[in-house]
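Can't paste images in this forum, so I'm doing it all in text. The chain is below; anyone willing to post the predicted structure tokens underneath?
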Amino acid sequence: MTHDADFTTGVVAMDTLGRRRFAPEFKRELVERTLQPGASVAGIALAHRINANQLFKWRRHYLKDRNAPAGPPGPTLLPVAMTPALAAPAREATVSAPPGTITIELGGTRVQVKGSVDAATLRTVLASLKGP
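Text version of the structure:
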């Protein structure tokens, strides 16, 4: 039967507990078969009398090793171009406008706020005009 022939070719040794040890080439060959389009990991494992979970584990290790970088990443050098320093544009002096007047009319009541008023004070005035 072909199952036995395929099964025995990958076994390298048996340990004292009766667990099979497989050749790395055999593992790699089975994993590469699972990576083919339309391949069934469970079917390949069954054909070689291997637990599908074991084959998935081999596959994870194979893909991890294949995608691992060859070594630690080295420093990356970026291109740098030196240009003469540009003079900062002269800022125009900001002249603060004189405080203005805010006129508020609510329900027949008129309130005028002159000068600079902070937001908290203005909220207090509006809340008192609004009433309870």
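The beta strands are 11-14, 20-22, 101-106, 109-114. The chain has five helices and four strands.
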